Amino acid sequence: MPHPGHKLNVCGQNIKRVRLSRSPVLTQEQLATSLQVLGWDIDRFGISKIERGQRQVTDIELLHFTKVLGVSASELLDDVYR
Prior knowledge:
Blueprint: H1 12-21, H2 28-37, H3 44-51, H4 59-69, H5 73-77
């Protein structure tokens, strides 16, 4: 089990930031549904864990996020923990 302050990804907070910056705001449920259309079996609870840094994200999953959110991988990987 990771240390309580240890994050398992650097993209989660960026995913949340991009999701909430949409107008109208994209809900976790809507994001999960869009990702499911691409073939990723994920629900809003999985999205929540990613956004909180409690779940790792594979490179393929990161690409799915870039497609659905319309942003680059580098934007999602910008290290907010520097």
